[in-house]
Amino acid sequence: MAEDDVHAAIRDGARSVRGVKVRTHAGMGLCQGHTCGPLIEAVLKRELGSAYQPDDRLVRGPARPVGLGVMASRGGALTPGSPLPMGEGKGVRPHGDGKP
Amino acid sequence: MSAASPDVVVVGGGLVGCACAHSLAKRGLRVTLLERGDLADGASGACDGHVCCPSKAPGLHLELARRSLELYEVLSETLGEETGFRRCGSWLVAETEAEWAALRESAVARQAAGLSVYLQSGDDVRAAEPILGEALLGGSFCPIDGQTDPWRTTLAFAHAARRLGAQLELGVEVIGVVARRGRVHGLETPSGPVPCGRVLLAAGAWTAGLCEGVGVDLPLHPRRGEILVTEPMPPLLSSIVLHAPYVSAKLDHADEARATLVLEQTADGNVLVGSTRSFAGFDPRNTPEGIGAIASEAARLAPKLADLHVIRCFAGLRPCSGDGLPLLGPVPGVEGLFVATGHEGDGVALAPVTGELVADGLTVHGGWLPELLPEREPQARHALPTR
After folding, report:
1. Residues B315-374: tens digit of each pLDDT
2. pLDDT score for A85
3. What is the Cα–Cα distance from B187 to B193, expressed in whole angstroms?
4. Most B CBs within 10 Å: which of A71, A90, A95, A97, as the mutation test of the B interface?
5. Is the pLDDT of residue A100 over 60?
6. How far apart are CA B274 and CA B290, in angstroms?
7. What is the DSSP letter of B343?
8. At B132, is the pLDDT very low, low, confident or very high (cuts 50, 70, 90)?
9. Cβ-defined contact of B39 to A68 (cutoff 8 Å)
10. Judged by CB atoms within 8 Å, which residues 139-168 of B form the interface with A?
11. Strand ranges in chain B using DSSP code E only, listed in sequence order
């Protein structure tokens, strides 16, 4: 997506990163906004000033992609703050969707 | 606020509120919509996009879904903006002999009601949707069902309403309804009162709190539904898929821990894997139990899904009326106050028809459906938790 898309979202009423996400689907790729989130936030702050609204929403897991089979076997253990050890979770190699 | 006093103020910028605002504006009413956050901030932004008929009971519920589906078919054209709706068909699938017997019976009842539903063997189900596993005994296919994009649909309704002259005021929280001598006079907001003689509350599960403020106990409870999102994949599913107990789970208010599998693949390629139903107040967090239960159901019924990565979990608070039907109509005892809520998990499926029914109710004398009135017979409701 381009910065123009953020401007269009702002014209439509977006005041937060989530508002941009709903209108552009930014932040829905594999990295879940880790890359585009801060960039979008910077544009929002610059354009909106005090009207910018920080997202006070919940941080949703998982912190990084987890195999669904692993979730199935260890769902109860996947509490916030107890992430899986690195390298666990078998799975097909994720591919991006071409979105930021 | 805008200078001209509106004919109706709609409270809530979710899919139902935006659909109502659009329908009312289309009938020529001056509409103002107040939303405390942003469009699709509540349940409409945390749900799947199923527009499914066979999951509805024959009778009014099924007829509402069929009418809504008709409206969805042409909605992108009606609104002048793409909603993401596509007719994809739906599978209701059975795992146990008991589920299969109940599913056959329910398919017969729906065929009798004129719905196209075809019973298929487990092998046929797997041939149609290879991601489904050996555990399934059979399924019923409904070719007319579809899926939509709840965000795009909400935005499309909102934009179309705006083009028809509706004022959309985002970031305006309604603190309370102003009523005197049994009549609505407007709404209270942090920036002052909004005078209006007719108010439609379409604030999902939060509608009950607004009614409480004017002494009305609306039979409505937030019911949390959790959903997992996988990494985007090439096409894996051609239809939406629901495990048959999903339908009965709606009216089973005791079975808290259970997840029933529902699947769809979005236009972006992500598979949405749901879902749970639990009464947890207004707590929108995901739970380890809910996530684990959904993943276990998915891994058992669609083992190939176990190889996919989950990239996100979310949860939405559905407005549960207790008897499976929405609450649409005037609030008893407060003239000028109306509600459109209580859809629980049917908000997406029934939003277009809800807009139509609300516009009928507010513009046609005697236009509300008695079966959906908020004061309908309470014994029809199943036991709900105490608030």
Report:
1. 999 999 999 999 999 999 999 999 999 999 999 999 999 999 999 999 998 899 999 999
2. 38
3. 6
4. A71
5. no
6. 10
7. B
8. very high
9. no
10. 151, 155, 159, 168
11. 8-11, 31-35, 50-51, 86-87, 90-94, 118-121, 138-142, 146-147, 167-170, 176-180, 183-189, 192-195, 199-201, 221-232, 240-243, 259-265, 270-276, 309-320, 327-330, 337-341
- Give the closest-approach CA distance of B361 to chain A in angstroms: 30
How many Å apart are CA A65 and CA A85, to the nearest integer?
Answer: 12
- Which residues of A fall within a CB distance of 8 Å from B170? 13, 15
Q: For residue B300, what is the DSSP state?
A: H
How far apart are alpha carbons B144 and B73 in whole angstroms?
10
The pTM assigned to this predicted structure is 0.92
Q: Whole-angstrom Cα distance, residue A49 to residue A46?
A: 6
Which residue in this structure is represented by tokens 């903006």? B81
Amino acid B183 reads R
Partner-chain contact A68 B293, CB within 8 Å: no
CA of A58, closest CA in chain B: separation in Å? Answer: 7
Chain B residues with CB-CB distance to A79 below 8 A: 288
Q: Residue range B226-239: average pLDDT?
A: 97
Instruction: Say whether pLDDT at A90 is over 90.
Output: no
The complex scores an ipTM of 0.88
Is residue B146 within 8 Å of residue B299, measured between CB atoms?
Answer: no
